[in-house]
Amino acid sequence: METPQLDAAGDLRHLLTLDGLGRERITTLLDAAQALRPHALGRVAAQPLAGRTVVNLFFENSTRTRSSFHLAARRLGADVLDFDVGSSSARKGESLIDTLRNLEAMGADLFVVRHSESAAVAALAAAAAPATSIVNAGDGRNAHPTQGLLDLLTIRQHKGSDFGALTVAIVGDIAHSRVARSDIHGLRALGVGTLRIAAPANLLPAERWPGVEICHDVDSALRDADVVIALRLQRERMEEGLVDSLDGYWRDWGLTPPRLRLARPDAIVMHPGPMNRGVEIDDAVADGAQSVILAQVANGVAVRMAILAQLANRTAP
Amino acid sequence: METPQLDAAGDLRHLLTLDGLGRERITTLLDAAQALRPHALGRVAAQPLAGRTVVNLFFENSTRTRSSFHLAARRLGADVLDFDVGSSSARKGESLIDTLRNLEAMGADLFVVRHSESAAVAALAAAAAPATSIVNAGDGRNAHPTQGLLDLLTIRQHKGSDFGALTVAIVGDIAHSRVARSDIHGLRALGVGTLRIAAPANLLPAERWPGVEICHDVDSALRDADVVIALRLQRERMEEGLVDSLDGYWRDWGLTPPRLRLARPDAIVMHPGPMNRGVEIDDAVADGAQSVILAQVANGVAVRMAILAQLANRTAP
Amino acid sequence: METPQLDAAGDLRHLLTLDGLGRERITTLLDAAQALRPHALGRVAAQPLAGRTVVNLFFENSTRTRSSFHLAARRLGADVLDFDVGSSSARKGESLIDTLRNLEAMGADLFVVRHSESAAVAALAAAAAPATSIVNAGDGRNAHPTQGLLDLLTIRQHKGSDFGALTVAIVGDIAHSRVARSDIHGLRALGVGTLRIAAPANLLPAERWPGVEICHDVDSALRDADVVIALRLQRERMEEGLVDSLDGYWRDWGLTPPRLRLARPDAIVMHPGPMNRGVEIDDAVADGAQSVILAQVANGVAVRMAILAQLANRTAP
């Protein structure tokens, strides 16, 4: 399936979603990230992005993801411009697209964009100049492709590359989660064996994906799983009446050691962070031997280096 | 005319205003910016500001101008310290001058300063240590000299260097515009043929400049113009009662395609940004073939590189 | 005395406090800072921190101290990540320790931390990974060790290294001052001859230190002092009822030229900044010949370079 994130030659121009990206392109990106993994904690000797400018354009707060992209860009040698939207011309009524065009005119051609609306990043990509590449750092509940990739990389490191042999359970607020959607797209592209999503009834998504099992309780989702992905519960879900109480959520959906024992003994536990300890995950699980949550964070820098390097290479001067 | 921005040897020490700077110095700066233009979109190989620190000291929000200076400084090799005044000691009651002296004591000697009061940047310059240079990034309604220079550079690129042959119209809220004042000073210094300013009666400035024509409607200002500079309407002008309604302003002063046809067919259209589309300028004009608005933005980086390089060179260790 | 800031080999791993650090370690740090002093105003040729990431993790606003650390780190070649806590996951309920672990997982191993609670920085240090070093940039009213070191360095530069021959007076709000505590610890470690602290009764600390004289008026503290350290009066002390009025404070405790004449004629005047001119210090004193306040600021960059270089060297890859 062709997506607007490819250019006329079929090369990746933007990274907007894993939906339709295909197994081959995803595997290539994971391989590149894996090769960069040892460098993700320090600067790469060859600085492929030296003299390039990466703009962090975050219309929604996220210090963690922004920091991860910042470090990824710096370790490749790029300059990073953190464009502070809160105090910017966006407040003066300038359109997103005018903001983009201005930054392009200043010589930036790599943009990392987060926005609270699902369509906003794709709209920017559609309006971008030919030399511009845009990486979606999370748009509404639509997609968070670099999180999806770092999750795939973390699974592959721990469970090998035969995704067909794996059972993966994603548990929590699926409905509002762009992480869940990107994980689902990525796992399906790599041919995951069994994929289950589990959520309270009013936190299940309206969409259905072929072959994805819907679970209405956490126990049946966890049973014999190789990979358990716990999602963050946004506290505002309680105000919206979607969750009765945090205590009730913890009782029915919290990932505790007894529940984790339903999964395979060598199952890994993942979480995109930041965690609500005692709401969706227990300390003993978050910090336990099966947790790979900090490995996810380290892989995040490697994945972002890989994607920035690939997109920058496309438009290298 | 001597201005306090020159040092004892007559060299440029600060850039505070184009008023009195003179044709020769302005032309030298434009030539330097033009030479840097191809480098404005990426890092300069020789890094003349390597190891130097440029401080962005913005007492008034402006992500665009701050980003432009940031990129200009980085592309010359400087480190940039974005001194966030909103969360700084300025809030704790420290004076502007104490803030400056502290940053000087930390080894910074190039300051880019924006302030909402017209006299504030000159006051800082007067108090600065001998090795310090200050670039005015906009002070009250007084001056915005780098915007003036980038406007002159953009005009020269499109219309050649014989400013005496040109008719320039500046349209909009002249009274509150530091851009208009810097444009007027710069255009007069370069010997512009005809210079017209047009604004509603209560947005005309109190000052008069010899040879500058005052127009009370937009049509007479545009007639046969080579260059049209539209200014941003600050929305707070409506709250202040200076503008009856945005609709009325648009009807009487908006730069539309029919109005633009009053100008010369090869006239260029400029705007300092951010634009209020549908208030002072029509989409078809802003994005049309005569618009050089994004060229202004690109020239802004080159102009700021040129001025930073010149001032840094003066105090090179 | 052993403190948790040393590692198993007895080397400095974190800098949390000067309390118990000992004369030898302090002197070594001062010597290193003195050697870096000429470089504190520009980048060091050998970049010992190239490729390393220093995280500025400020849970309390302080643009000055953060800028000083930023410049110190950059001049050693490090990348600096200003982790903006105000807009970060800390707001989403993530614990301090999870924030630290995430940044460690991204490859950061040098943290500069400021927090409004006295125990918070030590708690982070206790939870940090083995390769991580933490510099306390001020925690509650507990400690501000780099300020203490820069004060010691400034005194040594002006008065020589025989601290036993010196009389030092610290004047102002001692009770709430982490600067006062770090100065007291440092001066006692270096064997200061006479150390006096002076404050209004309700701004005196509950602690007592052997040999430290308590003065109940400013005049008796200043008499024959070689060094006068004026402290900032937090304006909120008035709202708390600890100070009757700023005028009254100025009358009774303000450091004026007549009062300064009680000290030795060659006494130096110090202040950690930002100053409340006309509240705790007179312009004529702040800007007078005896003031070394800006020398303190310059020494601050050198001291921070020294400590970052030493800690980075410990964990150099």
Major sheet summary line of chain A = 5 strands, parallel
Strand line-up across the major sheet of chain A: 7-6-5-8-9
How many separate domains of chain A?
Answer: 2
Q: So what's the CATH class of the largest domain in chain A?
A: Alpha Beta
Q: Give the C-alpha Rg of chain A.
A: 19 Å
Low-confidence stretches of chain A: none
Strand and helix order of chain A:
HEHEHEHEHEHEEHEHHHEHH
Number of DSSP strand runs of chain A: 9
Quaternary state of the chains: homotrimer
CATH architecture of the largest domain in chain A: 3-Layer(aba) Sandwich
How would you sum up the global shape of chain A?
globular
What would the CATH topology of the largest domain in chain A be?
Rossmann fold
Largest interface: A-B, 28 and 27 residues
> Mean pLDDT across all residues of chain A, rounded?
92
Distance between the termini of chain A: 30 Å
The CATH homologous superfamily of the largest domain in chain A is called Aspartate/ornithine carbamoyltransferase
The DSSP helix count of chain A reads 12
Explain what the structure shows.
Three copies of one chain form a homotrimer. Chain A is of the alpha/beta class and 317 residues long. Chain A folds into two domains: 23-144 and 298-314, Aspartate/ornithine carbamoyltransferase (Rossmann fold), CATH 3.40.50; 145-297, Rossmann fold (3-Layer(aba) Sandwich). In chain A, 38% of the residues lie in helices and 14% in strands. The first copy, chain A, is built from twelve helices and nine strands. Chain A has helices at residues 23-36, 63-75, 96-105, 120-127, 145-159, 178-189, 218-222, 236-239, 246-253, 257-260, 283-286, 293-314, and strands at 53-58, 79-83, 110-115, 133-139, 167-171, 194-198, 212-215, 227-230, 268-270. In chain A, the strands form two sheets. Chain A has a five-stranded parallel β-sheet. In chain A, helix 1 (23-36) crosses helix 5, helix 2 packs across helix 12 (293-314) and helix 5 crosses helix 12. The longest helix of chain A has 22 residues, at 293-314. In chain A, 55% of the residues are buried. The mean pLDDT of chain A is 92. The A-C interface holds A 40-43, 61-64, 67-68, 70-71, 74-75, 86, 235, 273-277, 294-295, 297-298, 300-301 and C 50-53, 79, 81, 83-85, 87-89, 91-95, 98-99, 101-108, 317.
